[in-house]
User: Fold this.
Amino acid sequence: MKEVKAEWDEWDLKDGVKDDQVTYDAFYNGFMSVYFSCYRCEETKKALQALDMDCNGQVDWNEFALYLKWALRQHPEIDTKHKLIDVAFRKGLIPAMQDEVING
Assistant:
């Protein structure tokens, strides 16, 4: 989890402020593009909406960390940063986003 947080911090600083929040663009480029091939597609919007639990237009570390912690608890055999992110997306976020409805 520390390795993911270190990578998160790099993306967090892209806007010049370390506030544990990243823009949707930064989160997509840093973490999501492997799983979602189109930034502006409905599936990507659903995933971002599922992550952005406080609906502030950004992804907070605590929002992303929730999926990471879940992945570690459900799959204690995870031993790399890449496996952790993969399980968080494939078995956590992607199923969760199926309940999201995009407005407008």
Remarks:
- The two ends are 35 Å apart (CA to CA).
